[in-house]
Amino acid sequence: MKQYLISDNVHSLTGMKLVGVDGVLIKDQDSFEEAFQAVLERNDIGVLMISPQLIADHQDLVDEVRFNRSTPLIVEMLGPSEYASEQSSIADTIQRAIGISI
Question: Which keywords label this protein (predicted)?
Fold first, then answer.
């Protein structure tokens, strides 16, 4: 299984490409949905990394896949600016999914 990155940060995309992970740079909202659907149609992608802001902007679409499909595993890929101010997105996802705050 391969990894793939959908990012709004050119530095994150460049870094991942340097280690062999393919991806796409998103410049507008419509291109995210196209890229996301294209990844879902591929059977070789096991891990899909997405920038936190893109996940926040498309939370319903991302959660639909997270909760109803086994692959790809969707994880946040923090960029340089998000890494410094990391919040517990996993706890937020669990709280939305089952209504329990941790």
Answer: Ion transport, Transport
pLDDT in tens, 76-102: 888 766 654 555 566 676 777 787 665
Instruction: Describe the strand order of the beta sheet including 2-7 as a list of residue ranges.
Output: 22-25, 2-7, 45-50, 73-76
Among candidate residues 34, 28, 71, 18, the one with its CA nearest the CA of residue 53: 28
Residue 78, number of CB atoms within 10 A of its CB: 17
Dihedral Cα 62, 4, 7, 19, nearest 10 deg: 150
Q: Please identify which residue in the block is written with the tokens 């996802």.
A: 93
Domain 2-98: CATH superfamily is ATPase, V1 complex, subunit F (3.40.50.10580)
Q: Where are the domains of the chain?
A: 2-98
**Whole-angstrom distance, CA of residue 65 vs CA of residue 73:** 9
pTM of the entire predicted model: 0.77
